[in-house]
Amino acid sequence: MRKTLKQFASNMNGFPHFMLKEIYQQPEAVGTMISGCLRRPDTIALPDFALSPDDIRRFSKITIAASGSSRHAGIVGEFMLERMAQIPVEVDFASQYCYRDPIVGPNELTIFISQSGTTIDTLAALNEARQKGSKSLAICNVADSPLTRNADATLLTYAGEEVAIAATKSFTTQLIAMFLFSAYIAQIRGTAHSAVKSALRELRCLPQQMKQALATDETCRKFAGEFYRYRDCIYMGRDIDYPIALEGALKLKEISYIHAEGYPTGELKHGPTALINEHLPIVVLATCDRSDEGSLLRYGKSLSNIREFVERGIPVLAVITEGDTEVSAIAPYVVSVPDVPVLLQPLIEVIPLQFLAYHIAVLGGHNVDQPRNLSKSVVVE
Questions:
Q1: Measured between alpha carbons, how far is 327 from 136 in angstroms, rounded to an integer?
Q2: Beta partners for 139?
Q3: Separation of alpha carbons 335 and 338, rounded Å
């Protein structure tokens, strides 16, 4: 029988809402996945993994099918897999996968990401892919679910029970699952370059760095007092940060009922900039891994964008790397997160966006844990 929030109340541990509690549980949940898969500073093992090394060497393409926050994790996974394993990746909405009659070639893998493992459109997509001959991998938080039972292989995320409807720790554990799987493939296929090895060396530090990012709670609560009166918001990010902009916008929509959209930063001038004025705040992901040349290039472009927005009187909240004095000198609102390798940045950047959505929703007087019209698993198309 499904538990109600009242039945869960004894497990609040002093938090006013389950969503806030589950945001704070993320470092531990991510640490559980890392400790189960990281054997040496730079070696990944996936215990009892059903896809053989020969299977993995034969893969010529990977498709990821998912919905909602899980799809955003899949887009991050697209960046990780293509960069780390050098395999072409396509990300699709699970709800669209069957209708477009996908072409599945030989030696392809399709990954299905779901918190519950019971989402109906993801299950339909799994069935379609298997009928067309694709190998299948389920990334899921529930060990015994229809998705994990029917997929060829499973990578469990071990997030623990997530009570709030809006995904938080289930999302970040999906992100680390995508990283670990990407590193595992790169290891087998011999494609692990210096950026992959750098991220692997830093991996054991990630839970502690996520704990440090939890210190943005109070800053985001303060900024929420400025932002919750707006009725629209734009989130922007470049490269691997773009799906985190999508996730930040989704969190705000889900629990505060404020209209928000996520865009690649470079796309803004291809239409959406027509909407921007002093009544439309912009959240910009502007972190920088200064050891990565590509990250530095993207940062410079984002800095230029932020300067332009500020000059036009637009409210800008920038998520930056600790120690960044350039953006902090011009942006009216700044929240700092720890410096991590670029491939791990999404796990750090999303935390202040979760806090921001949470505090805005609380100030708006909304039911944070059970937003209207939403359920934990979509079981009807």
A1: 43
A2: 113, 155
A3: 10
On whether residue 171 sits in a domain, the answer given is yes
Q: Are 213 and 337 in contact (CB under 8 A)?
A: yes
pTM to 2 decimals? 0.94
Could you say which DSSP state residue 3 is in? P
3-state helix, strand, coil in the chain (%, to 5): 50, 15, 35
The residues pairing with 91 across neighbouring beta strands, listed in sequence order, are: 64
**What is the rounded CA–CA span in Å between residue 172 and residue 348?**
9
Sheet holding 259-264, edge to edge: 259-264, 232-237, 282-285, 316-321, 333-337
Q: Are residues 176 and 231 in the same domain?
A: no
Residues 120-177: tens digit of each pLDDT: 999 999 999 999 999 999 999 999 999 999 999 999 999 999 999 999 999 999 999 9
Q: Are residues 143 and 44 in the same domain?
A: yes
If residue 282 lies in a helix (H) or strand (E), which one and from where to where? strand 282-285
The torsion angles phi and psi of 316, rounded to 5 degrees, stand at -120, 125
In this structure, the answer to whether residues 159 and 236 fall within a common structural domain is no
Taking CA atoms, 283 is separated from 141, 153, 223, 235, in Å, by: 30, 38, 11, 5
Strand partners, 283: 235, 317
Contacts for 275 with CB less than 8 Å, ≥ 6 apart: 232, 234
pLDDT digits (tens, 9 = 90+) for 291-306: 888 888 899 999 999 9
Tokens of 304: 């230029």
Q: Could you tell me how far CA 95 lies from the centroid of its own chain?
A: 19
Q: Are residues 236 and 326 in the same domain?
A: yes
- Would you state the structure tokens that stand for residue 58, as one six-digit string? 């034969």
Query: Do residues 191 and 222 share a domain?
Result: no
Pairing of strands 316-321, 333-337: parallel
H/E stretch holding 314 reads none
Compute the distance between CA of residue 13 and CA of residue 285 in angstroms, rounded to an integer. Answer: 32
Burial of 13 (0-12, 13-18, 19+ CB in 10 A): exposed
198: tokens are 């750098």
In angstroms, the Cα distances linking 2 to 6, 19, 361 are 12, 18, 25
